[in-house]
Amino acid sequence: MTTRAIVLDANILIRAVLGVKVSALIADHAAGVNFLAPDTAFQEVQEHLPAILSARGAAAEDLAAALRALDALALVVTAVPAQSYDPSRVAALARIGRRDPLDWSVLACALQLGCPIWTEDRDFFGVGVSVWTTATVGLYLSGEALDPVRPAD
Predict the structure, then answer these.
(1) Helices marked H in 74-136 — which ranges?
(2) 22 neighbors 15 (Cβ within 8 angstroms)
(3) Which residues are paired to 5 by β-bridges?
């Protein structure tokens, strides 16, 4: 069996920390899928969590719990160091630059590693790599999307 890999955008990391569905998908497939994210995605989550939780009216202890959940997530999702994906920086910026140049690292990581992206950000559609949303990523994670199309009986 071939191990699959997928690059997670920061918005997926946030959903994994604060929600149930994404964290369950990751837990259910951790044994057969390499979950990856550029190191900058983890930094972005750390920067945005306080504002997100504040907007939700969360207490200080909720932020502490979310940061602990992010630390636990980092045990399952490998943070890819910048030097690993930086060779694809120019190509990534050329593909996504006008839409959202701050997301270049996610695309560069996917290009460098030859794997798809899991995101809810529509800016990634049409950049030359497969993009999965939470609604459909289960097909990829389970390997169903890797099977050739079979004609109906």
Answers:
(1) 82-85, 89-96, 104-113
(2) yes
(3) 34
pTM: 0.90
Q: How far apart are CA 39 and CA 79, in angstroms?
A: 5
Tokens of 85: 């994906």
SS3 content of the chain, % helix, strand, coil (to 5): 60, 10, 30
Backbone φ, ψ for residue 116 (5° rounding): -75, 175
User: pLDDT digits over 29-72, tens only?
Assistant: 999 999 999 999 999 999 999 999 989 888 878 888 999 999 99
Domains along the chain with CATH numbers? 4-145 (3.40.50.1010)
Q: Number of helices and strands (H, E) in the chain? A: 8, 5
Quick check: helix, strand or coil at residue 145? Answer: helix
Let me know if 71 is exposed, middle or buried by CB neighbors in 10 A (0-12, 13-18, 19+): exposed
Beta-bridge mates of residue 80: 38
For residue 127, give the 3-state DSSP assignment. Answer: coil
pLDDT, tens digit, 9 for 90 and up, residues 101-110: 788 999 999 9
